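Q: What does the predicted 3D structure of Glutamate--tRNA ligase look like?
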Amino acid sequence: MADQIVTRFAPSPTGYLHIGGARTALFNWLYAKHTGGKMLLRIEDTDRARSTEAAVAALIDGLNWLGLAWDGEPVSQFGRVKRHQEVVAEMLARGTAYKCYCTPQELDEMREKARAEGRPPRYDGRWRDRDASEAPAGVAPAIRLRAPLDGETVIEDQVQGRVVFPNKDLDDLVLLRSDGVPTYMLAVVVDDHDMGVTHIIRGDDHLTNAARQKLIYQAMDWDVPVMAHIPLIHGPDGAKLSKRHGALGAEAYRAMGYLPAAMRNYLARLGWSHGDDEIMSTEQMIEWFGLEAIGKSPSRFDFKKLENLNGHYMRATPDAELLAHWKACLAHVEGGASVLDWMAGPGNADKVLAALPGLKERAKTLVELTDSASYLWRQRPLDVEEKAAALLDADGKAILAGLLPLLSADAEWSLTSTETIVKAYAEAQGLKLGKVAQPLRAALTGRSTSPGIYDVLVVLGKDEALGRIADQAA
């Protein structure tokens, strides 16, 4: 085995990086980082109908957004077909593979007979030991693995433990189809061997593939990588993860306003743990990660937990960094382009940065942040929500009219000065502070809830704030 640990992430390009794939990529990445090794990226694009450039770009975009950088250039499985065919030719020469001239009709009959007899449908090996002279004229053969007929194949899995497969259940699988196209089983083994992969970390839906792939390694006298098959992610109800549970692409989570660091933390905790630690920095995850701490049971996806974790990360992220993530989110949501245009206007980025400390305390996602920050770029006169409109009754308008000249006279326009004026006015009128602040909030934001009212006054700036109050005053 090589000195350096090499892992790989090998997705099929289906149009996006789904959440299970993202966790698999993360585990491979963390293990490579933890051991000082490398993580390689291979695109399993042999299905030409599905493997478009756009689908590959979406996968790479998802990995980049999550911050999971691979080593070297991505490898295209389809681009290695000649190499796969070379290996099969070598297996034929070794006698560990053979030519099979069965017609599709014969294979169908084999399956039907097995079903009728209550057996699993297996190839019956009819061409395994026949002489080449019996080959029918003009028929291109498929190439099959000459698998052992008895004994067992054992996978010493780092997560599942010792898994034993009777060889009688592993038939002579096809390595090369009659049209010369390699099968997935063959291509995966050849690519992993040639790429120097030492550790295969993937979903446990590949566990039966592991036994068949081990037979191919042995047929070529190649080292078999260490295997770790991770339980799949289920929904909160314990059922297989579906779109309603959160089986969405990475780009959907970006558009929903989640931060990459929060996603990494949340996905790491789906099936792996370090004591009772829930919140971990990426550096801590790299330091602590090990295959031995991956659980054997499926983990359950929980949006509420992800949301709460994301809220923590939003509060903990420095404002300038959070703004960069926010802009990345806005670039992928409906209506986000107009907000980005506004942010690019003179002085507006400064307004946003000034507002962020108050905004991020209340928001759990960047989408919520956008919603609560919308008072910054809304045009006068504001559309006022129903709840806020109720606060702008005759009494509310009278309060605004009383405040307007006092605030207009404020030359300082700071958190302290505006707070002093509003509190003094409430006291002078014999009103509770909330009775004054509520119509003021409604006039400034068009809403009944917002960040702290003095923050709003200062961030909007004196002219804009006074204009909005005047629009609603009696």
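A (community wiki): The structure tokens above were generated from the sequence. The chain has a mean pLDDT of 94. The CA atoms of residues 98 and 144 lie 5 Å apart.
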